[in-house]
Amino acid sequence: MSQRRKSKPRSPHTFRQIDSNHEGVKWGRHSFKVSPDGRISDITRLNTEYTPEHVMHRTASSESFRTKSNSNKYLLLMRQKAEYDGILRNVSGTNVRHDYLSDQSHTKAMVTELCTRVKGLVEKEDRIIRLNSPVVIFGDLHGNLQNLLIFERIFFPAGPRASPYTFIFLGDYVDRGDYSLEVMCCLLSWKLQAPDSFILIRGNHEVRIVNSQFTFPVELKRKMPNFPEAFELFNQVFDCLPVAALIEGSVFCCHGGIPKPNEGEEFVKLADIARSPCPLVDPDTEYNLTHQLLWNDPVNKSGKFHFNDKRQTGFLFTEEATDNFLKGNNLTHVIRAHEVAQNGFSLNHDGKCVTVFSSALYDPSKNDAGVITIFRKIIRALTIETNIKDLAKK
Ligand SMILES: [Mn+2]
Q1: What single-letter DSSP state applies at residue 317?
Q2: pLDDT (tens digit, 9 = 90+) per residue, 18-34?
Q3: 205 is a catalytic site residue
Q4: Which of 13, 22, 54, 205 is catalytic?
Q5: In angstroms, how far apart are the furthest CA atoms of the chain?
Q6: pLDDT band for position 394 (50/70/90)?
Q7: At 166, which helix (H) or strand (E)?
Q8: Contact call for residues 326 and 333 (beta carbons, < 8 A)
Q9: Separation of 236 CA from ligand 1 center, angstroms?
Q10: Which of 109, 153, 176, 239 could form a disulfide with 279 if both were Cys (CB 3.0 to 4.6 A apart)?
Q11: Residue 260 and residue 263: Cα distance in Å, rounded?
């Protein structure tokens, strides 16, 4: 019989190191029942520590897990609106016979509260938000409420806080589609419920000089004729949205793409993007680097940057520009939105630049919606089935 080797006792130093470095875990405050379609009920508070009731009601966790919290009431209104309009399968079991959103007193209080509270959250955020995986990344929504509610059912049916994912939206929430107001009310409600894991990045349509020329103000006026302040309230939130996200210190996310460096420089440093002002009302004239983050597109051409003819503003960036930006900042990939893609995503620059677009049927070629996930160091592009024929209740 072989002699068993005596194992060396671990040095106490090792234990001390582990002890001093770990961040620890703690109990969440709520437990609940989840139905097969993801609805939560039977919410109970775990009494692991004493918290006074008036403090409890102000935490994001109770905002998420109290069915009577304002954000949950607003989300229910948006789902009922979608069911009433026949763009979402009725799963609530209630037959919605009334368009609750047409009640002006509801919408005015809702928009005021959502905009005021979320502005208070996003203006404190870093301009580049640093995150770890797992993440789900969404591209342009453009007022597509139906697709957004399908994403909810697939990725966070019991709310973003009950999911291990961090959700990143890359902007262009409003204009073009019919439901910019409802899309914004959903996004802002979820932001209140999960401020650290529900991230809203600014797109070029989240700029009042842009959206004032598209459908957003017309839609607000039609749906809330007695509340002209709504347009400015939403845009004050937009002025304060962060402009980029960085995942695992390696994947850079923004709406448009890589900005052109100053003469004599090879690449734009992340530190310069992080200095983007807040609030930023007109990126074009106040901080052009951010204007480019919101507008630029990738191109397969030689050289580095070319004028963006298609947009008549910003630049097209080449693979060489992508390489310089990635190498200079020690990154591996860029994930951006801003351009429609047939399967919901497309790859440029040898897979180093990814485009994601999350609004189906946006163009005449009947594009699909896509999302990107990053999980265990793997980037995956998904096409989401959003065909509504079997979803509509008619
Ligand atoms: Mn765009």
Answers
A1: E
A2: 445 567 888 887 888 88
A3: yes
A4: 205
A5: 90
A6: very low
A7: strand 166-169
A8: yes
A9: 19
A10: 239
A11: 9
DSSP codes, 60-91: HHHHHH-TTSHHHHHHHHHHHHHHHTTSS---
Distances (CA, A) of 69 to 62, 66, 99: 8, 5, 21
Q: Using an 8 Å Cβ cutoff, are 137 and 170 in contact?
A: yes
Residue 256 has pLDDT above 90, yes or no: yes
Cα 99 to middle of ligand 1, angstroms: 31
Q: pTM for the full model? A: 0.89
The structural domain count of the chain equals 1
Distance of CA 21 to the CA centre of its chain: 31
Q: How many angstroms separate the alpha carbon of residue 91 from the centre of ligand 1?
A: 33
DSSP state of 260: P
For residues 61 and 167, which has the higher predicted lDDT (pLDDT)?
Answer: 167
Is the residue at 96 inside a domain?
no
- Does residue 272 belong to any structural domain of this protein? yes
CA of 184 to the centre of ligand 1 (A): 16
Question: DSSP letters along 267-307, please?
Answer: S--HHHHHT--SS-S-HHHH-HHHHHHHH-EE---SSSEEE
Written as one letter, the residue type at 10 is: R
In a domain, 342, yes or no: yes
Q: 146 lies in a domain?
A: yes
Please answer whether residues 169 and 175 qualify as being in contact, where contact means their C-beta atoms are separated by less than 8 angstroms.
no
Q: Tell the residue number behind the tokens 């992340």, with chain if given.
A: 270
Q: Domain limits at 353?
A: 101-384
Q: What is the pLDDT of residue 16?
A: 46
User: Any idea which of 36-45, 51-60, 122-131, 282-291 has the lowest mean pLDDT?
Assistant: 51-60
State pLDDT tens for residues 78-128. Answer: 998 998 888 887 666 666 777 777 777 788 999 999 999 999 999 999 999
CATH number of the domain where residue 187 is located: 3.60.21.10
Ligand 1 geometric centre to CA of 255 (Å): 7
* Ion ligand 1 neighbours, Cβ < 5 Å: 172, 204, 338
What pLDDT was estimated at residue 92?
60
